[in-house]
Amino acid sequence: MEIRESLQVTVVDKRQRNQMRRIKEKYRQVIKTLLEEIDADSKEQDGSEEEEEQRGKSVNIEMRQSMDLKFIDYESIQQEKVAELQKMQEDISQLKDLMQTVSEMVEEQGEALEDVEEQVETTHVNTKKTNSELLGAQKYNNAYRKKLAILVGLLLVLFIIILC
């Protein structure tokens, strides 16, 4: 999945680069034609040709600098966008890894929780059995005491009868 996304980003980068190259070429052609027109106009006009050439050259230099700055701006913006896309791709990948880790932890804790629940149920059943066994032992103990008291009483009566 990540390879597919990176290929898509690469294809988008190539498309944007090709588009920027075409735009640069068009701007260069426009500048060239403007300069040719300026040169043609300056030759037709009367007056000082040197001054007009100087003006044309300065206009030409200013236009080229302006266009170069625009191209640099477009390229830097494009590079920033590519960097942002790569950062977002890395963040998404990290988020995916975190979600997988959390999912695994939830599964592990779910199993542990089921084990605890099972142990609680077993303890509850064992406690009920123990309570019933203790009640039985208590009844047996009470019955034993009664028998012992009756036996002691009979022995006393028998001893009294023998002494008399």
Explain how this protein is built.
The model has no long low-confidence stretch (mean pLDDT 77). The longest helix is centred in the middle third of the chain and has 115 residues, at 49-163. 96% of the residues lie in helices and 0% in strands. The chain is mostly helical and 164 residues long. The termini are far apart.
SS-based class: mainly alpha
Shape: rod-shaped
Largest sheet report: none
Mean pLDDT: 77
The SSE string, one letter per element, is HH
* Strand residue percentage: under 5%
> Helix segment count?
2
Rg over alpha carbons:
50 Å
What's the total count of β strands?
0
Number of domains: 1
Approximate helicity band: over 70%
In whole angstroms, the N-to-C terminal distance is 109 Å
Q: Report low-confidence residues grouped into runs of 5 or more.
A: none
Q: State the assembly state of the protein chains.
A: single chain
Features:
164 residues; mainly alpha; 2 helices
Describe what is shown at a glance.
With about 160 residues, the chain is an all-alpha fold. About 95% of the residues lie in helices and about 0% in strands.
